[in-house]
Amino acid sequence: MTVHINSGKHIAAKEKLAAKAPREAEIADALSHHKAMTERKRRRTIFRFRVVKTFISAGIALNKVRGAVRELLEEGGERLTDRSHLAALIPDILQNEWRKVTADVSGGFVSIIFDGSCVSAEAYVIILRFIDALSLRVQQRIVNLRLLAKSVDQDDLARVLSETLSLVLRLEPGRVAAFIHDAANVNGAAYNVLKPLYTASASIDCLSHACDNVGKKAVYGVLDDFFSDFNHVMVTSPKARMLWRDLIGVFVKRQVCANA
Question: Has this prediction a pTM greater than 0.70?
Answer without folding.
Answer: no
